[in-house]
Specification:
- By secondary structure, the protein is α+β, with helices and mostly antiparallel strands.
- The chain folds into 3 domains: 6-110, Transcription Regulator spoIIAA (2-Layer Sandwich); 127-226, PDZ domain (Pdz3 Domain); 246-491, Alpha-Beta Complex (2-enoyl-CoA Hydratase, Chain A, domain 1).
- It has helices spanning 6-13, 38-55, 65-77, 85-99, 111-117, 163-171, 182-190, 192-200, 229-241, 246-253, 275-288, 306-316, 344-354, 366-370, 396-404, 471-475, 480-491, and strands spanning 35-36, 83-84, 107-108, 127-132, 135-141, 154-158, 161-162, 205-211, 217-223, 254-258, 263-267, 293-297, 324-329, 355-357, 363-365, 384-389, 410-414, 423-426, 431-433, 440-442, 446-450, 465-466.
- A 6-stranded mixed β-sheet has the order 10-11-12-16-17-22, sandwiched between helices.
- Helix 11 runs parallel beside helix 12.
- It is globular, with a radius of gyration of 24 Å.
- It starts with 5 loop residues before the first helix and ends with a helix.
């Protein structure tokens, strides 16, 4: 059950030392310590509520109107005093957007904030952690001279808050599709200091209870981590002088490596990267090389263009398929809120040209509901396919998983996807920019119900072969899921 406490929000807003982060770093152009009056914050919040209630297609998908009304009201009441942009975003907007249970509805800091914070050093909790289910393991200590808590230790509590409670509290500030929490565990693992700082605040010292690999429990007081100005400057210089080639940038998004036993295709995004050309050349090569085993790694694929996702499906699926059972918006235009929503002209134009009101009162995107995709014949892959998934497999990559799951020559290996199996909201996702704080909130405009989906709402696509995290493999930098696939190929 989703946990949200605006009482806790109110208690944290003014007792955590956020301002300490920027006491001497405000720029002339932008002041992160600027506080907005309760009236300004309430104006922004009311505008956001009105837009979400009128335009969001899935506001009540996982919560009843009564429950969402209560959540909106509690958020409004939490605005009791002036707040900075950071405080308002994390203490009010983050819990609100998380309560919607839509992975594409999240808040973002203002553009001015992002420019201000770029390449700046911000103090934070020093330990990097891998978090999953009931475990929280140290994978690195950013304070390199501090060897008190070693890599491989398991955290029991931080500042008196048990590890399980830490996860539950932070999860209340993170978005997800339905209740597929696997994506939260991975995002928390990649940025635990970031989330801990923004939810609990910054402290000069942290009291940490931990256990070693033998199960011995100890307590240590560790200082926060802060990069020196020299280190920050070195990083800036490295970023400035190390210009990566176009080929390197493309390889970050997609790549193909052919081994003696299998080929590994990594697709980290279904956006950009000239994927049409890449897929065409790759599958032609696989045919010429007579590759019989293909591994497709989409573990960090957050989605993108549905057409690109469908194109990859066409190369490995043997039968015709559809992407969506239904795709619809609850409104045909952005007005009267167009001035607050990005790309409003083109969004309104697209809604006018491509949607049509049906008997259910919704505005349906007929193309995705009607179109049937045909498999590739010439360079279609005829061997065995293994698709690697985890919680970061999201949005369009989840559509790909749904379309290929159950095919005779295809196995999904790994963990439950973060994107909803039943469906999700997206396709058009403009930003709402609030007029006073300039904080932004993503607004998915269409609800998509997957074709041939499962009936259970709120979960991701389940793998055919489940491979959970293995703490020993994590410490040894071993790719557990890839090892399982290699064993499957060997056994075959």
């Amino acid at each position: 059950m989703y946990r949200i406490s605006f009482k806790m929000v109110r208690s944290l807003i003014f007792c955590t030392p956020f301002i300490y982060l920027f006491s001497c770093t405000a720029s002339r152009q932008y002041n992160p310590n600027k506080k907005y009056s309760p009236q300004q914050l309430q104006q922004d919040y009311t505008l956001l509520r009105n837009i979400l209630e009128e335009k969001h297609p899935s506001l009540y998908w996982y919560s009843s109107p009564e429950k969402m009304n209560n959540i909106f009201d509690l958020g409004y009441k939490a605005i009791e005093d002036s707040m900075t942009e950071l405080q308002f975003g994390w203490k009010v907007l983050a819990p609100l957007t998380a309560a919607i249970h839509c992975g594409h509805t999240s808040f973002k800091m203002s553009n001015q904030w992002n420019k201000f914070i770029k390449n700046r050093s911000i103090p934070s909790f020093p330990l990097l952690l891998k978090v999953w289910k009931d475990s929280m393991m140290v994978v690195d200590n950013r304070n390199k001279k501090d060897s008190t808590i070693r890599r491989g230790s398991f955290i029991k509590s931080i500042n008196g808050v048990a590890s399980s409670d830490l996860v539950n509290i932070i999860f209340d500030y993170m978005v997800e599709d339905g209740f597929a929490e696997n994506v939260k565990y991975i995002r928390l693992s990649t940025a635990f200091p970031f989330f801990h700082r923004n939810v609990f605040g910054l402290y000069k010292n942290y009291s940490v209870v931990y256990s070693d690999s033998a199960g011995n429990t100890s307590t240590a007081v560790v200082p926060y981590f802060a990069q020196s100005e020299d280190t920050v400057q070195e990083i800036k210089n490295e970023i400035f002088f190390r210009k990566r080639t176009r080929s390197e940038r493309l390889d970050d998004l997609r790549s193909l490596k052919v081994d003696s036993n299998y080929a590994l295709m990594t697709i980290n995004s279904f956006s950009k990267a000239h994927l049409n050309k890449f897929f065409k050349h790759s599958f032609r090569l696989l045919r010429r090389e007579k590759v019989s085993n293909l591994v497709i790694d989409i573990r960090t694929n957050g989605g993108g263009d549905i057409n690109k996702s469908a194109l990859l499906t066409k190369f490995i699926r043997k039968t015709p398929f559809k992407v969506a059972d239904s795709v619809y918006a609850v409104s045909k235009k952005l007005s009267p809120f167009s001035r607050y929503i990005s790309n409003s002209f083109f969004t309104n134009l697209g809604l006018f040209l491509f949607t049509k009101r049906h008997a259910d009162g919704k505005y349906h995107f007929g193309y995705w509901e009607r179109h049937t995709f045909m498999p590739k014949r010439r360079n279609g892959f005829n061997g065995k396919v293994y698709v690697l998934t985890n919680g970061l497999t999201f949005s369009a990559s989840t559509l790909f998983c749904n379309a290929v799951k159950g095919q005779p020559n295809i196995l999904l290996v790994g963990e439950e996807t973060g994107g909803g199996w039943y469906g999700n909201s997206g396709i058009l996702i403009p930003d709402i920019t609030l007029p006073n704080t300039h904080l932004r909130v993503r607004l998915p405009f269409f609800r998509l119900i997957q074709f041939d989906h499962i009936n259970e709402k709120g979960r991701g696509v389940f793998p055919d072969v489940y491979v959970p995290p293995n703490w020993r493999d994590i410490l040894n930098n071993v790719d557990t899921k890839m090892n399982v696939v290699q064993q499957l190929i060997h056994n075959r």
